Amino acid sequence: MSATTTTPDSPTVPSKSPGFLTKAFTAKGPGEENSGGWFTRIVLLLVVGVWLLPTIGLLVTSLRTPAAANDSGWWTVLTEGGLQISNYSEVLSATSGGSTLAEAFVNSIVVAVPATVIPILIAAFAAYAFSWMEFKGREPLFILFVALLVVPLQVAFIPIIQLQVQIDSFLSGTLGFDNFTLNGSFLAIWLAHAGFGMPLAVYLLRNYIGALPKEVIESAKVDGAGHFQTFWRLIIPLSVPALAAFAIFQFLWTWNDFLVALIMLNSAAEGQVATTYLAGLQGTFGEQLHLLTAGAFITMTIPLAVFFGLQRFFVRGLTAGSVKG
């Protein structure tokens, strides 16, 4: 006769009932109720539709005739029809401010790439220093960096231009560099965009780098690695998601920027970027709406390629470092 061994039941721990978001995003079995999930999907589809509506309108307007684009809304194409692709060939050959769309396209790349790389490099060094280096005044200096986020860039234009003029005067009058002019050059807009993007870059990267495992940094010190070696061989490879997330933000801002390019670059043809080109292309009274939308749709290709190429790092780079533990 065998004896049956019983074990005492484990104590029952009361648990909270799942909230709405938990129910909505938890997979249900066949036949189980999933009303919260369906509601969430419907809301998300509506949000996506609202966000896509302007892009659809832009695409439809870029395919309409000049008269139709100026006289009626894009949604009337459902009853009127009359789409054409000749607007795209016309905008590729049109000139605005003495430059073509291809030249403005290249200038936008020349502006956006260095204006993205420069603040990332500088901010990464600063974020490492704020996170893992001990020095006097570290926290107040970081707070000062973050406080610059609330300063509108418009208030900085006049001081920046005055500084550029003084630098040009010093270089030409004192050092004899008559052929070098900072004001109105690509270098000026690179430095301006780098300065405007630096506070957010330092803030994001400091949060991410500061959340990296302390044991990794300490083991590098034990192995004899200095700060520079630790930064390049450990911090940079581990911080790729945060670097990519900020790169997306900064590239989109500089690519779509109009005001800084209008003020910092010369008005000559060699200084036209895509946004200033499109502003001149629409005409004095906005009568070239079909060309404006076609050109805008073409210039969307590079930002979309950058975003979809780096999107797998985007959410990780923004959320990592926000919660520790």
What does this structure look like?
One of its GO terms (cellular component) is plasma membrane. It is found in: Cell membrane. Residues 105-310 form the ABC transmembrane type-1 domain. This protein is mainly α and 325 residues long. It folds into 2 domains: 35-84, no CATH class; 94-319, MetI-like fold, CATH 1.10.3720.10. It contains 16 helices and 2 strands. It has helices spanning 20-25, 35-62, 66-71, 77-80, 86-93, 101-132, 138-147, 157-173, 186-210, 214-222, 227-238, 240-256, 259-264, 274-281, 289-299, 301-319; strands at 95-96, 99-100. The protein has a two-stranded antiparallel sheet. 26% of the residues are buried.
SSE map:
Elements: H1 20-25, H2 35-62, H3 66-71, H4 77-80, H5 86-93, E1 95-96, E2 99-100, H6 101-132, H7 138-147, H8 157-173, H9 186-210, H10 214-222, H11 227-238, H12 240-256, H13 259-264, H14 274-281, H15 289-299, H16 301-319
Antiparallel strand pairs: 1-2
CATH class of the largest domain: Mainly Alpha
Total helical segments? 16
* CATH level-4 homologous superfamily of the largest domain: MetI-like
Helix content: 55-70%
Number of domain modules: 2
Uncertain ranges: 1-25
The Rg value, from CA coordinates, equals 27 Å
CATH architecture of the largest domain: Orthogonal Bundle
Strands of the biggest beta sheet: in what spatial order?
1-2
Q: What percentage of the residues does DSSP assign to strands (E)?
A: under 5%
**Structural class, judged by helices and strands?**
mainly alpha
**CATH fold name of the largest domain:** MetI-like fold
Quote the distance from N terminus to C terminus. 53 Å
Report the biggest beta sheet as strand number plus sense, adding barrel if it closes: 2 strands, antiparallel
- What would you call the shape? flat
Mean pLDDT over all positions? 81
Can you count the beta strands? 2
Q: N-to-C SSE series?
A: HHHHHEEHHHHHHHHHHH
Organism: Euzebya pacifica
Protein name: Alpha-glucoside transport system permease protein AglG
Transmembrane segments: 38-60, 109-130, 142-165, 185-205, 231-252, 291-310
Membrane topology: Multi-pass membrane protein
